[in-house]
């Protein structure tokens, strides 16, 4: 996980720390176009005390993952039910809703043009990723690991990086999920759904990257 410091970039923090994206949005900090800025620079640009912003993020880090089960088998079950199935259900609704908003409001200067295409790419990426976990990696973990488990874990980490890039694309085309004045109910529902989906996905990736995967990486090749 990204070490939380004033030198860490806001893009890295938003992609890896549950709740960080919403903190940045609340303070008007861009983590897509301005994602390469250090936390110190982003705070200064927004008129914030850097140490105060860092404190908010450290509180999030300390709370991250507390609601997840401790035992490996139970944690895997939690990831499957709380994230895999929920992602599938939510994307099935978000994609047609995004298509509707783009079609109806495509001539609006703040229309989220390209959000449907990005969501479809994210759906395809996540479906392939989740199937690899469900069919290969998680069964391997339930059996206690394998000398070669490091390879599929590395692939999953790479998949997470790809998903994080796609989330940044959504953040960009929606202008930080900022609704225009007078937005219709469909547009409002789309951004509310995207906010919840994005936060879920970051939490999902955090649980795997920082809690589940390290339990097996130390024994890989042993």
Task: Kindly describe this structure.
The protein is an all-alpha fold and 222 residues long. The chain has two domains: 10-63, no CATH class; 72-217. 69% of the residues lie in helices and 0% in strands. The chain has helices at 10-16, 20-26, 39-45, 50-63, 72-105, 115-142, 150-173, 185-212, 214-217.
Task: Looking at this protein, list some descriptive labels.
222 residues, mainly alpha, 9 helices, 0% strand, globular
The N- to C-terminal Cα distance equals: 24 Å
| Unreliable stretches covering 5 or more consecutive residues | none
**What is the domain total for the residues?**
2
Order of helices and strands: HHHHHHHHH
- Overall strand count: 0
What Rg, in angstroms, do the CA atoms define? 18 Å
Report the structural category. Answer: mainly alpha
Summed up, the helix count is 9
Helical content band = 55-70%
**Average pLDDT figure:** 92
Main β sheet profile: none
Shape, per Cα inertia axes: globular
- Quaternary structure classification: single chain
Which percent band covers the strand fraction?
under 5%
